[in-house]
Amino acid sequence: MNRRRNAALILATMALGAAPGAAHAEIVTFGSDLSAPADTVETHPVDTAFWASRLASGASAAAPESGQLLGVRIKGIALRNTDTPPSNPSVGGSTMFHIQVLEPQSDGGMKATQTSSDLFLPKSGDPQQINTFKSDFRQCVAKGDRVDFNTVGGYDPAAYPNGTPLRIFAAVPGSATAEYEKGGGTNNGQILRGRDTEGQELLMQVIVGRGPDGNQACPGGTEGAAGGGGGGGGSTSSPQFARVKSSRLTANSRDVATATLYCGTGSASRCRGTLTLTAKRDTGTVSLAKGDYTIPEGRNGTVRLRLNRDGRRLLKGRRGGLAVRLTAVTRPGGKARTSTKRLTLRRR
Fold first, then answer.
1. Tens digits of per-residue pLDDT, 274-288?
2. Helix, strand, or coil here: 15?
3. Are 17 and 34 in contact (CB under 8 A)?
4. Residue 89 has pLDDT above 80, yes or no
5. Alpha-carbon distance 301 to 124, whole Å?
6. Cα-atom radius of gyration of the chain, to the nearest Å?
7. Residues annotated as region Disordered (predicted)?
8. Is the Cβ–Cβ distance between 138 and 245 less than 8 Å?
């Protein structure tokens, strides 16, 4: 099967859907079958992850095979808070979310291993609409992994003190959705300990590509060269350090910006280091945010940067954005390796 036919088949599968757990060519889906109506709303003021714990349909809540995470299909929208005055009819909180790969732990916890680029739920139209979301860079899943929907919360002290209302759930007897809420506690490398909500189904279907429909950098994939299709990047001969990949940088309503790094291949199994966000002023270089990272070799990873007081002050009122620099310093053992990139930081 040639690549053009593969691409067409993948798009058709993601647009029309398939029964969870069913394989069509080398496409595998799991999670909700999206047949239930989106009739249940969840609101959370801080970072909260949701993933399928059990499905009444009998479909698998975990990845039945290893491969490349091609995307997810989600039923529903973000709702306008009914308490919002008519003079402010727009969605008050952020509709940003991320797709995360979760690795089951022996103690029952889930370790967040890969986080997608910034994605956004629709905030108008048919509340039963189904949309496909794909990360800007490659993500891989192993058999048995879970995939979560991770909302940033959307806290707004005036109109959305409980966060943005998300109508992407259904009341389904026999299903259960795991939920883990912790501000700043759902980043890569952290352990999520979900609490099941019985009778509730997350209306999200996960799509995985295998063989020729999954990049060979992912287990079970054979298509292309590492760093090729499905996002990702970098040659397999790249030195073992994290390279800044972000082409844009946006701060949400909670003053958090998400940056993307790529860990090259080498003798070590992962890239560890610190990512710093700075800006130049007349008085010199000012630090705006900082975050640590641990990224598996040959993979993309994200780092959430929370703006400090200087960052919030400098960005305030700048319609054209703020000129900044991202600096990733990786310490693989021996001399530290550095990657920098100039970007414009904007408000969403």
1. 999 999 887 788 999
2. helix
3. yes
4. no
5. 31
6. 20
7. 212-249
8. no
Residue 109: CB atoms within 10 A of its CB come to: 15
Nearest partner of 246 among 154, 118, 102, 337, judged by Cα: 118
Mean pLDDT (whole number) for 93-118: 90
DSSP H helical ranges for 189-279: none
Structure tokens at 32: 């909700």
**Are the C-beta atoms of 55 and 31 separated by less than 8 Å?**
yes
| CB half-sphere exposure, 86, CA atoms < 13 A | 0
Q: Please name the CATH architecture into which domain 234-347 falls.
A: Sandwich (2.60)
Q: Is the alpha carbon torsion for 229, 235, 240, 245 positive or negative?
A: negative
Dihedral over alpha carbons 182, 187, 189, 195 (to 10 degrees)? 30
* Closest among 87, 144, 138, 90 to 114, alpha carbons compared: 138
- At 42, the amino acid letter reads E
Vertex 55 angle, CA 176 and 139, to 5°:
95
First to last CA, the chain: 41
Distance CA 87, CA 85 (A): 5
Every domain of the chain and the residues it spans: 3-209, 234-347
Instruction: State yes or no: pLDDT of 332 exceeds 90.
Output: no
Check: CB of residue 178 under 8 Å from CB of residue 196: yes
Tokens read off for 3: 């690549």
